Amino acid sequence: MKLISFISAGVFIFCSAFLMKQENSKQQSLYDTKWRLTKIHSDSGTEEVLIKTAFIKFHEKKKSAGGNGGCNTFGSTLSVTGNKMSISEIFSTQMYCEETSKTETSFFRLLEKANRFEIKDKALLLYHDKDLLLEFESE
């Protein structure tokens, strides 16, 4: 009886570890995930983004990306091959919001410079070659 209990406990521990590893190895998808902007990197340093409405969402079938820059909604054309990307033809509504205009302008400018991405845990990192431009977290 003790042997059966010991074997059952071992099987339970093994299965639990296997399931936890599978859960941890699931990588967040670039597509159909709402990515909230958290940091902007520029020559003048790193800016923590306090605007909670700034986000981007990528659509694989539509080959587009869009979201909110903090004040204005936007859309764009998207091309992705492996971890390489191109975001172009950004268009947006034209409202003026004094408190967010600088961040939004930087956000849109850097999106067009991005040419590759990485996903680490729940973070999306957009780069221009080796230079980190933008950081996002999944919601």
Short recap of the structure:
With 139 residues, this protein is of the alpha+beta class.
Account of the 3D structure:
- The protein is an alpha+beta fold and 139 residues long.
- It has a single domain, classed as Lipocalin (Beta Barrel).
- Helices cover 27% and strands 42% of the residues.
- It has helices at 2-25, 101-113, and strands spanning 35-42, 45-48, 55-59, 64-68, 73-81, 84-92, 116-120, 123-128, 131-138.
- Strand 1 (35-42) and strand 2 form a beta hairpin.
Low-pLDDT runs of 5+ residues are: 14-25
Let me know the largest β-sheet.
9 strands, antiparallel
* Domain count: 1
CATH topology, by name, is Lipocalin
Number of strands: 9
CATH class, named Mainly Beta
Q: Which of globular, elongated, flat, extended, rod-shaped describes the shape?
A: globular
The CATH architecture designation is: Beta Barrel
Mean of all residue-level pLDDT scores: 86
Write down the Rg.
Answer: 20 Å
Helix content: 25-40%
Question: Approximately how much beta-strand content do the residues carry?
Answer: 35-45%
| Measured distance between first and last alpha carbons | 48 Å
Q: Helix count, per DSSP?
A: 2
What order do the SSEs take from the amino end to the carboxyl end, as H and E? HEEEEEEHEEE
Query: By helix and strand content, what is the structural category?
Result: alpha+beta
Observed structural traits:
139 residues; alpha+beta; Lipocalin
List the helices and strands and how they pair.
Layout: H1 2-25, E1 35-42, E2 45-48, E3 55-59, E4 64-68, E5 73-81, E6 84-92, H2 101-113, E7 116-120, E8 123-128, E9 131-138
